[in-house]
Amino acid sequence: MENKKELRTWLDNLQLDHPLVIAGPCSAETEEQVLKIAHELKNTDVNYYRAGIWKPRTRPGNFEGVGALGLKWLQKVKAETGLKTATEVANRAHVELALEHDIDLLWIGARSTVSPFIVQEIADALKGTNKIVLVKNPVNPDLPLWLGAIERLASSDIKNLGVIHRGFSTYEKTKYRNNPEWQLAIELQTKFPDLPLISDPSHITGKRDMIFDVSQTALDLNFDGLMIETHHDPNNAWSDAAQQVTPSALVNIMKDLKIRKESDPEAAYNNELNNLRAQIDVVDNQIIELLGKRMKVADNIGELKKQKNVAVLQSKRWNEILGKMVLEGEEKGLSEEFILRMFKAIHQESINHQEKIINS
């Protein structure tokens, strides 16, 4: 993309003294619900009031949104509270209706980002608009697909662009609803440092009690803002009840978050250092996750060896692994000494796991 500096203009123009905040219910349910939440958020740090009007559901039969009627409720939100409005669009018809009702910010959802055809249709419908358009990462961890969606929108002369990191689906069970895969957001940020980057901790976690920690990690990684689903009665929400917080809980989250500010050269240095340390924390957590997975495989091997009465230590296999890892480590700039010490420790832990199973 050319003229990357222009991409941050809309965010800079807001002149905020806190991260950008987009908040509101996962789904617009009733006019009363939409307006009640909006009035509870109007004197907070919230900059844009979000509500899902059209809800893409994995399986039919679930609540799929109130449709265009909800756009009139968002118009009332703006008139009564002064809050700017935001909603998701997934096709040309959605775009045309959202523009007709003067919605200020539109985002493309994760299920739409996976399809270049859908993104191109939306880009054509939005051509030349001055509305803010944000692109959620695709469901699968595919950075080129995410960037491709941004490039299609930029090619349609849409300058007020940004991205939303909402995590990625995985077949493995983790503590997250959608695994954050922070390294992909970091890589995108590295490629386009002036592209506003928003975190969606609600969809990453799927649990309201994890939202604060994920939000803090995002801010430590220099994200520009947060999109947090907020409902006055989250336990009875019509969709994604477990991941929504109350307006008062949102206020407390924003109050407790540590914001890194750059007011002098020393502060700028500390901010960069904290960002790099946050990246190390992300990688360290990934290492622990991978080691845990490796030991589960070792446990399965131990069960198999126990059934077949096979010795735990297989020297030929071990030497093959060690030689291969030394070569691959050298390609990554890692010393042979380090690789040997690390994999000997991992190997010993695997032996301990297998011996415990065989001797049980």
UniProtKB/TrEMBL annotation:
The keyword Lipid biosynthesis does not apply. Keywords: Coiled coil, Transferase. InterPro entries: Aldolase_TIM, Chorismate_II_sf, Class-I_DAHP_synthase, CM_dom_sf, CM_II_prokaryot, DAHP1/KDSA. Residues 267-358 form the Chorismate mutase domain. Its EC number is 5.4.99.5. SMART domains: CM_2 (SM00830). Pfam families: CM_2, DAHP_synth_1. It is an enzyme of class 5 (isomerase). It comes from the Bacteria. Residues 266-293 form a coiled coil. The keyword Acetylation does not apply. This is chorismate mutase.
